[in-house]
Amino acid sequence: MSKKKVIASRDNALVKRARAVRDGKMRDLIFVEGVRLCEEALRSSLTIEDVIFTQKMVSDERGSALLANLEHTGSRMNEVTDAVFSSISSVKAPEGVVLLAVKPETGSWLIEKPNPVPLLIIIHHINNPANAGAILRTAEAAGATGAILTEGTTYIFSPKALRGAMGSSFRLPLWTGASFRQVLEWCRLNGVQLVSADLRAQHSHTEIDWTVPRALIVGAEASGLTPEEMRAAGEAIKIPMHEPVESLNVAVAAGIVLYEAARQRGLAGRGDAETRRRGD
User: What is the pTM of this model?
Assistant: First the structure.
């Protein structure tokens, strides 16, 4: 790696730009932090504009290999002091590497790519970025073909949501900012059957057919879907639970249902060797 002057000022233009991206003020770019997530960004072929790193990465074997691979992409390499990096980082214990990358495309056309039996997850008004990210990660792992995030839902490319998804937001086809009405109409036009979760539903998540085109809707953590939204969705399912438990974390509930869909579709178990090789 060619040696450049180390950036030591928090008022440097790149440093200010990095903070703006981190805070969601420049939404054409995303703020990718940490060795594992940066490796996923590289593996997912994101367009990376700037790499910001500290000496700690240079002296670490894994970090050094990552930097070498990033430099080969033609990205701008920028070493900063630990103090400057701390002013950029979105976490309490920074690893010492951040990427400023072009935000992946999102839109309805991405989930409309030819797929005879789509399996979609609709994330509606969920405001916890970690939960939203975890749902995307589980959806990709379970073989979902795409995700829709409605308007009013947390920004799925925020640093916390990206950490929760751990690379899935880079790869899973996404449609963001859709209205609930738009989603309903899109599913109707494309023959996708909607399913919501309701404690009062007659059938459990294992008692419906997931081998047909389906979209699972999950709602806000505290309130879930409104009665009107559940009626509009049509079919409802419940996850059986032992009393006195009445509800599950939304990401956990989505995972349980999506893996039942994966089981019925014969996808469960695929990729196990890769999971063991890479670890969590």
Answer: 0.90
Classified by CATH at the fold level, domain 13-102 comes out as 60s Ribosomal Protein L30; Chain: A; (3.30.1330)
Q: What is the CATH number of domain 108-278?
A: 3.40.1280.10
Kindly state the tokens that stand for 25: 């003020």
pLDDT in tens, 182-214: 999 999 999 999 999 887 888 999 999 999 999
Contact 101, 41 (CB under 8 A): yes
CA distance 117 to 174: 17
Cβ atoms of 62 and 97 within 8 Å: the answer is no
Compute the distance between CA of residue 58 and CA of residue 36 in angstroms, rounded to an integer.
16
d(CA 23, CA 25): 6
Smallest CA-to-CA distance from 34 within 116, 97, 127 is with 97
Q: E strands, the chain, where? A: 29-33, 48-53, 76-79, 97-102, 119-123, 146-150, 174-178, 193-197, 214-218, 235-237
Q: How far is CA 61 from the centre of its chain?
A: 28
Decide if 99 contacts 167 (C-beta within 8 A).
no
| Beta pairing class for 235-237 and 193-197 | parallel
pLDDT digit string (tens) for 214-236?
A: 999 999 877 788 888 988 888 99
Q: Parse the chain into domains and list their residue ranges.
A: 13-102, 108-278
DSSP of 251-279: HHHHHHHHHHHHHHHT-TTTTHHHHHHH-
